[in-house]
Design brief:
single chain; alpha/beta; 8 helices; Spore Coat Polysaccharide Biosynthesis Protein SpsA, Chain A; globular
Length: 217
């Protein structure tokens, strides 16, 4: 499976988490470190997953691009169209320039408690669904309305529909919901409460280090 992780510009990412890394002080540098740490832990889990062949980070932020390039992650810039779905579509197009028949997946960048085994299990479940004539599959977030992972079989358009209420939109577009528990895969982090839940699940090393002075956010 080839996988896309889009990362927003750090000055615009995770606005509802401002202050979570510095006890409410809302320092911009501290917030940027937290947003970057969430992405680093997500990508680290992806790279450790056995069923991921390639990972592509899509970003317009030069700091993010440099950070991931420095650890050997492939990076591409955002295309001319704004927004998360455009970033996913661009990533899928770039991946399929090299292998048009490859299955592709779109993953949110704010999954600091993600375990590689969860991602492998979700990919396995999606591939099983593909053999049963489904062509796209997705993982609903912990809140029950969003999407953390969208997968498309080889040669099938990814057709990302992320945003508020994306789970319903993906289902209506023909994607099937994957049933596994996978708490780290489902726990995206948008709010301080989400972050506290991720802390309880067990954070990756980058987010843990950023939150070390105030581990309960």
């Amino acid at each position: 499976m080839d996988l896309i992780v889009p990362v927003k510009r750090l000055d615009a990412a995770k606005s509802r988490l401002r202050g979570a890394a510095d006890r409410g002080a809302c320092d911009e540098a501290a917030h940027a470190r937290l947003a970057l740490a969430l992405a680093h832990d997500t990508v680290a889990a992806v790279r450790a997953a056995r069923h991921v062949r390639r990972v592509l980070v899509v970003t317009s932020d030069p700091v993010v691009a440099a950070e991931f390039a420095a650890v050997g992650v492939e990076v591409a810039s955002d295309g001319p169209l704004p927004g998360l779905n455009a970033a996913y579509a661009r990533g899928a197009a770039l991946l399929r320039e090299r292998d048009r028949c490859a299955p592709v997946a779109a993953l949110q960048a704010d999954l600091p408690a993600l375990r590689p085994s969860e991602l492998d299990a979700a990919i396995t479940g999606a591939c099983a669904a593909f053999t049963d004539n489904a062509r796209r599959a997705f993982c609903v977030d912990a809140g029950g309305t969003g999407t953390t992972l969208l997968l498309a079989a080889g040669g099938v358009p990814l057709d990302p529909r992320f945003g508020i209420g994306s789970a319903l939109r993906h289902a209506r577009s023909g994607a099937v919901a994957l049933p596994g528990a996978w708490p780290g895969l489902r726990r995206d982090v948008d709010t301080s409460e989400d972050l506290r839940t991720a802390v309880d699940l067990g954070l990756g090393e980058h987010t843990r280090a950023v939150l070390a002075p105030c581990p309960r956010a």
